[in-house]
């Protein structure tokens, strides 16, 4: 194999590795409460775990009821010891359907959002 061909193959391999890591996006790994769960007791806190560290200033949690009205949450924070975790305190919730709505930005400026539905029996 010629040196030029070898360099071309090496350059292609390096570009493939760099490109695949550049397009990797942060995502929600787990939630408490879990998506789709039916709980006998209303949760007092939301805990969301992501696969990357979050930017606290651009990450938030809100809660919506079955009527899509926003329900106030408090103490929304990114964990100082584990910046891939975001939490919020919930008020007392009566039985019903709820959606945790979240938006977040990672340290590499990737924005993401999603929701976690759950019900309280």
Automatic annotation (TrEMBL):
Entry keyword Signal: yes
Subcellular location, record wording: Periplasm
Signal peptide: 1-24
SUPFAM superfamilies in the cross-refs: E set domains
Domain of life: Bacteria
UniProt KW Metal-binding keyword: yes
Keywords, comma-separated and alphabetical: Copper, Metal-binding, Periplasm, Signal
CopC domain mapped to chain residues: 25-120
NCBIfam families noted in UniProt: copper_CopC
Family recorded in the similarity comment: Belongs to the CopC family.
Protein name in the entry: Copper homeostasis periplasmic binding protein CopC
Phylogenetic classification of the source organism: Bacteria, Pseudomonadati, Pseudomonadota, Betaproteobacteria, Burkholderiales
